[in-house]
Structures are given as structure tokens and as C-alpha cells.
């Protein structure tokens, strides 16, 4: 059962004055660092993604998971595109992932696979959605490095990653039970993951052994999780959040994830150790 006792911090990123070296930046930075140390995650209130963009993402994604399986398989046949589904232990889970933000025209490749007219609306909406979330990623990364006294490494870390986006559907079939789409506990690879869910279900494991429900359904709310490579890079200063998904409602749950992952040729090491 998820606990109601411990609460994941909610951090406000809406302030227009939120720029490095301002008092707002300094106080937000403290909250970000403490949350990632203690919980490995927080809820960001971030208003830079217009409502119609975010809603457009979910509307388009509903259609993707209604396409026949053959489309999903066709999608998987393209380089750097992954479809996970029909997993025997969680048959109602399905996701499509793409290294879409590094490969030119990759959003269009995605759209062309699923929609015969290439769905220009999807491409526009997706580019805008991820652009704004990459800015949130950049702010959080800078705040962590400044908190660690590693300001000089900000450019290095920001240029060491690529982004992967994943769209996930947790199908609910009446009478089938939640276990068929439940995502088992895990930590993510990469630096940070930013998640938007259309209904709750994401839970994070706190150090006292309790699973805490992440509330992320208000329009401007996004979950930021720190992942394994950031924990390693910071020499365990941050926690890599162990999380799982337990869909509880009686309609399909959709979520969108943005993962930032170090390039395969980048060596993830605590910079203090690199410099001796
Ligand atoms: O669906 C979610 O909210 C999270 C999914 C997740 O943890 C993952 O794909 O790694
Ligand atoms: Fe995950």
C-alpha cells in the first residue's frame, strides 16, 4: 500500500525571476538538492508547457495504442525505435520509445509510422512539449551541480547526454486485475527522468520501506526522478529513486517520460575524482 504519511516535496518553477544568481534561484536550488538527496525525486510545478500542447500529446498518444499491433511492430523495425509490449508477466503494459530528440526528423518518422498523413499536429506538439521539458531538465541539472560546488562542470554534463522519450500505456480491462499492467520496481538508467501521467499510479520507495504515491495530475505538475548515472556522477550525493507503477483506476493510464542518458562514449565518473 502507498503511504500517506511521507510526502514528496512540491517545488515551484513558475517564477519568472527564476534565473541563476537570483534569490529565487538560490532558494529553489536548496529545495531541489534536498529533495533529490532525500527522496530521489520531487514534483515540479512548471507552467511553460501550454495546456493545449500537453493535452495534444495525450490525445495523440491514445490513438497510438489503438493502432493494430502490426503498426507497433513496424515502428520497432526502425533504428533507435523500441516497442515493448505483450510481455507475459504484464500483458496489458505497452510502450514506444524513441531517441527522437537527437536524430533529425525522428519525430516525423514516428508520426509517419502511425498516421497516413504524417500527423503534422503530433510533430508540432511533441517538439514543443519536449523543448520545454528539456529546459526544466537543464535548470535542475544546473542547480544540482551548483549545490555540489561543481559549477565548472555544467557545460560538460549538459553536453554529455542525449534524450529518449517514451510513451506508455497501462491498459485496464475490467475484471483483469491491476497486476497485468503493473510496472515492477526499478531505478532508471541515465541522469534524470521527467514524467507526466494522466492519472496517478507512479509510486516511489522511501528509505523507511514505504511506497509513496506521486500525485502528478494537476496540469502543470511533472515528476522529476534522479537516475543511476546521476547518482554515480555525483558520487552518491543523490539517491536514484526506486519506483513502480500500480494503475488503480478503471481506465487506461497513459504516461510520457523524458529520459536524459549519457552518451555511450562518455565516462560517468565523479569529477572530483577525475581531477585527482
Ligand atoms: O509510467 C510511469 O509513470 C513511469 C514509467 C517508468 O518508470 C519507466 O518507463 O521507466
Ligand atoms: Fe522508470
UniProtKB/TrEMBL annotation:
Extract the GO molecular function terms from the UniProt entry.
2-oxoglutarate-dependent dioxygenase activity; L-ascorbic acid binding; metal ion binding
Q: Does the keyword Iron apply?
A: yes
The source's domain of life comes to Eukaryota
Does the UniProt entry include the keyword Transmembrane helix?
A: no
- All copies of the Fe2OG dioxygenase domain together span 161-262
Please list the GO biological process terms of this entry. coumarin biosynthetic process; response to molecule of fungal origin
Q: Which UniProt keywords apply?
A: Iron, Metal-binding, Oxidoreductase, Vitamin C
Family per record:
Belongs to the iron/ascorbate-dependent oxidoreductase family.
Tell me the protein's name: Fe2OG dioxygenase domain-containing protein
Amino acid at each position: 500500500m502507498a503511504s500517506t504519511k511521507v510526502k514528496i516535496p512540491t517545488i515551484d518553477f513558475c517564477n519568472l525571476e527564476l534565473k541563476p544568481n537570483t534569490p529565487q534561484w538560490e532558494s529553489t536550488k536548496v529545495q531541489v538538492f534536498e529533495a533529490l538527496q532525500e527522496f530521489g525525486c520531487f514534483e515540479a510545478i512548471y507552467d511553460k508547457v501550454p495546456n493545449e500542447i500537453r493535452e495534444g500529446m495525450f490525445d495523440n498518444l491514445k490513438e497510438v495504442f489503438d493502432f493494430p499491433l502490426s503498426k507497433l511492430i513496424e515502428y520497432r523495425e526502425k533504428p533507435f525505435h523500441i516497442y515493448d509490449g505483450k510481455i507475459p508477466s504484464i500483458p496489458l503494459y505497452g510502450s514506444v520509445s524513441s531517441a527522437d530528440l537527437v536524430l533529425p526528423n525522428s519525430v516525423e518518422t514516428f508520426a509517419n509510422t502511425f498516421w497516413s498523413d504524417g500527423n503534422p499536429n503530433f510533430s508540432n506538439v511533441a517538439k514543443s512539449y519536449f523543448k520545454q521539458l528539456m529546459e526544466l531538465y537543464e535548470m535542475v541539472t544546473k542547480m544540482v551541480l551548483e549545490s555540489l560546488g561543481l559549477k565548472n562542470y555544467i557545460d560538460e554534463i549538459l553536453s554529455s547526454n542525449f534524450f529518449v522519450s517514451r510513451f506508455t500505456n497501462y491498459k485496464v480491462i475490467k475484471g483483469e486485475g491491476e497486476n497485468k499492467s503493473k510496472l515492477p520496481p526499478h531505478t532508471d538508467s541515465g541522469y534524470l527522468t521527467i514524467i507526466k501521467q494522466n492519472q496517478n499510479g507512479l509510486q516511489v520507495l522511501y528509505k523507511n520501506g514505504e511506497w509513496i504515491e506521486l500525485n502528478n495530475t494537476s496540469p502543470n505538475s511533472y515528476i522529476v526522478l534522479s537516475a543511476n548515472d546521476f547518482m554515480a556522477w555525483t558520487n552518491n550525493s543523490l539517491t536514484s529513486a526506486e519506483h513502480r507503477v500500480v494503475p488503480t483506476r478503471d481506465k487506461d493510464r497513459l504516461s510520457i517520460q523524458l529520459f536524459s542518458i549519457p552518451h555511450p562514449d562518455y565516462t560517468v565518473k565523479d569529477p572530483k575524482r577525475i581531477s585527482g
